[in-house]
Design a protein that fits this description.
Helix content is 34%, strand content 18%. With 341 residues, the protein is α/β, with parallel strands linked by helices. Bound molecules: N-carbamoyl-L-aspartate and zinc ion.
Amino acid sequence: MLTLIQPDDWHLHLRDGLPMKDVLHHTASRFGRAIVMPNLRPPVAKVADALAYRRRILDALPAGSGFEPLMTLYLTDNTSPEEIFLAKRSGFVHAVKYYPAGATTNSDSGVTDISICHDALEAMSECGMPLLVHGEVTDPLVDVFDREKVFIERVLSPMKRRHGKLKIVFEHITTKDAVDFVNENGIGATITAHHLLMNRNALFSGGLRPHHYCLPVLKRECHRRALMEAAISGNPKFFLGTDSAPHSRSSKESSCGCAGIYTSHAAIEFYAEAFEEAGALDALEAFASFNGADFYGLPRNEKKIALVREEWVVPESYPFGDETLVPLRAGGRMAWKVAEE
Ligand code: NCD
Ligand code: ZN
């Protein structure tokens, strides 16, 4: 048995409406809080949108849940410094998300050129509002497996130099290059469970595997190892962010399938498996329950959760509004289970 201070998920997609109700309880039964991504259609670009979305999340929670959604704003070319200050004052908006336009699911309202956002980023530096970065270039000439590395060179490095005080989280890092950048520059970074557990072979094992497709896409084994080392290193700048991104089965199993892997149904269990495989279960609590809260300047949770070594089989699918979704490891075995309270 493994007892941890209750973890938080620092990068989560909850969607909205009936599909949200079907996935939210998976997160709420494991995590104390989660940073909720704003890439709805239309995006959560204003504090008023975030307030309304937060209310819908709270209304969809199972009775008695103490789960707290931490809201984010979607950065656009038009985000004003005033909106940033308003977000800071709100107390419920905890970060601003930067999607390069066209980089991933629902990112067409994203930023076309980050230099346009100079004043908004300065406002964020001034009031200590973190910028969460989807770190991939969208240049079609850049190989899809190199988009994170090239983003560091073309966008992140210059941004870090220009906005020295800005609090940055490099989201869902997937490469050794990103690990090195985080170590050298002292910015924050989230790491998903699926990037710790799989390399890019998982996209093609025995055939094309749409449920292993996400963005940034899985990388080579040497990168997976670098991520694992970072996660267990004790460097407090690395923390848990699932990037659990539910899509209906039909939108994944398609001639042009959506990017996103669903892991919320077994999130902390997947991380436990990865840390155990690395022989570093004792490093899990800091990564999952302390580092993110410390980075965001929020109190650590007080409640505890227990994980037990008990096999269970992941369902083939879960309900998702009018459709179903296929979770990671559908039909397969899990080694860890969250103990009932
Ligand atoms: C995310 C989604 O589906 O919203 N997809 C993904 O592959 N991670 C968007 C994102 O975080 O890139
Ligand atoms: Zn995401």
